[in-house]
Write a structure and sequence with these properties.
There is one protein chain. With 417 residues, the chain is an alpha/beta fold. The chain is 30% helix and 22% strand. The protein has twelve helices and 19 strands. Helix 3 packs across helix 10. The chain binds flavin-adenine dinucleotide. Flavin-adenine dinucleotide binds next to helix 2, strand 13 and strand 17.
Length: 417
Amino acid sequence: MTKYSAFKVFLEGLGGQQGWSPAWRSPQPKRRYDVIIIGGGGHGLATAYYLAKVHGVRNVAVLERGWLGGGNTGRNTTVIRSNYYYPASARLYDFSLKLYEGLSRELNYNVMFSQRGMVMVAHSRHDLEGAQRWVGAMQLNGVDAEMISADEVKRRLPVLDASPGARYPIWGGFMQKRAGTARHDAVAWGYARAADALGVDIIQNCEVRGFLKNQTGRVTGVETNLGVIETDKVGMAVAGHSSVMAQLAGFELPITSYALQAFVSEPLKPVIDTVMLSLATGLYISQSDKGGLVFGGALDHYASYAQRGNSPTIRQVAGALADQMPSLGRVRLARHWAGIVDVVQDSSPILGETPTPGVYINCGWGTGGFKAIPAGGYLLAHHLATGQAHDIAAPFGLNRFFTGALIDEAAASGIAH
Ligand SMILES: Cc1cc2nc3c(=O)[nH]c(=O)nc-3n(C[C@H](O)[C@H](O)[C@H](O)COP(=O)(O)OP(=O)(O)OC[C@H]3O[C@@H](n4cnc5c(N)ncnc54)[C@H](O)[C@@H]3O)c2cc1C
């Protein structure tokens, strides 16, 4: 694997950029692997990386039906935070945030993690009381969070309408300073490159269409458009298509798939240097390094696999932006897209074993799984390699829908990405 460094970039600049090698190979599938991961998004690639790196399991294939990061990993708005309510979620998401803090160095790949902080803005007494409870829960769980005054919100976000007649008056808010954004493609590519260097086969344009099982019902392989590939361990990380894949494997998941849309404006000079979320409208926004305003709002209201935008959501989200930031009302929209997200009724992920022996799952991240990529990959790899759920993952098993031990994070994850 080429070691990336400032010196190497400088040298290549002198040499006409001729010395770079492909970041990963494009191998043909082998007849058999110790582990097959379905889905070449962030979670699938991270799982393969940690299997090889932490557990020494290197005879691994990642099967991706399209291109790496072409699912939600390359379609999201890149917000990373760990501001959840319950102790189990705080452990999970803060573990992920900590892995992000060292990720560029770990992968020798700049994932452009920028801890610019996230401000949740309260527009009423009700919002403010909710924010105080939220901060209290985070602090009890040992996660950084602080209330900020209305004046501090206005200082950090001068672009917000703070006039006396503002439609959404500013009452204050709270902040997680360690939150931020990272470059989504880079996260997928960084894990892919590092996993490939450890011997993992990454196979694109390879769609899984069925599962092979023995008489006891245990998985023995997968059927793909490139033929049968044998294995006795499969990890599934296919986000919005998890229930489809589960049906192929012979079980059901409590997941509903919805489109979630996002937007980016034409590039502007710097106007917002943090991530903002409005507790009243659900509008959230940050500014990319190229200058585009990256923003979004709530899910579409109906279940769907249609991976595209629609005009009611444009009106709703762009309307919230123009109401709250009137000075940006005439900025042009450059692009608009959607991804299919996997929503679970308690708004928490599903990690671990499934009713089909040998098949393990990582799904249910809904609108907020980009921030969880390092943890999701690490924990699924642990389960695949050791046969035991990691302590952090244990509360998120599928069995919670039988025991009733749900982890209801709707208040923290509904529209907060
Ligand atoms: C618009 C939008 C904004 C978002 N914003 C945020 C945010 O700001 N912060 C945050 O934390 N999260 C956010 N999310 C959620 C986040 O993007 C996802 O939770 C996360 O990317 C899921 O990663 P994944 O690897 O599980 O899935 P994906 O990246 O979707 O990867 C799954 C892969 O599986 C492949 N696949 C599917 N079926 C098959 C098959 N049969 N065979 C082989 N491969 C298959 C797909 O092609 C896909 O590449 C957002 C999502 C969207 C859509």
